[in-house]
Design goal:
mainly beta, Metal Binding Protein, Guanine Nucleotide Exchange Factor, Chain A, three-stranded antiparallel sheet, 2 helices, 29% strand, Mss4-like_sf, oxidoreductase
Length: 147
């Protein structure tokens, strides 16, 4: 995995902090716009098996699909690949005294979570996109069936 450049392209959706605050509740704003992390094992989609598409809660862009979701038992929804390679932006995150790679929505630059590689999960990419549930909205497929 290559870390993204520290300079980001201009987001397609640009709102002022006040506009984001009116669109998002305080917990959503903290995660999506201030890069907070929701507590593990409390998120709405952590253990969800519903077939469908996960979009950015801030702007509605498609980010992940249930077919790429897997049980990582880490406390947050985990995916091995975004729905579209251009759906997310990866950015180096050296906060908290460690090197991580932050995952942002490519459309609005909202913070989604982090991606980790080489942890030994048996997935096609050997990557774990560890995403805050509160950053996502699940749109169940027409059948609405669970996997």
């Amino acid at each position: 995995m290559t870390d993204a450049d520290t300079s980001l392209p201009t987001p397609r959706i640009q709102l002022t902090p006040q506009e984001w605050r009116s669109k998002l509740n305080p917990a959503e704003f903290a995660v999506l716009r201030e890069a907070a992390t929701e507590r593990p094992f409390v998120g709405e989609y952590t253990d969800t098996k519903t077939d469908g598409v996960y979009s950015c809660r801030a702007c509605g862009s498609e980010l992940f699909r249930s077919t790429e979701k897997f049980d990582s038992h880490c406390g947050w929804p985990s995916f091995f690949d975004p729905a579209d390679s251009d759906a997310v932006i990866l950015r180096a995150d050296d906060s908290l005294g460690t090197h991580r790679v932050e995952v942002l929505c490519a459309n609005c630059h909202s913070h989604l979570g982090h991606v980790f590689e080489g942890e030994g999960y048996n997935t096609p990419t050997d990557k774990r996109y560890c995403i805050n549930s509160i950053a996502l909205t699940l749109h169940p497929s027409d059948s609405g069936s669970a996997r």
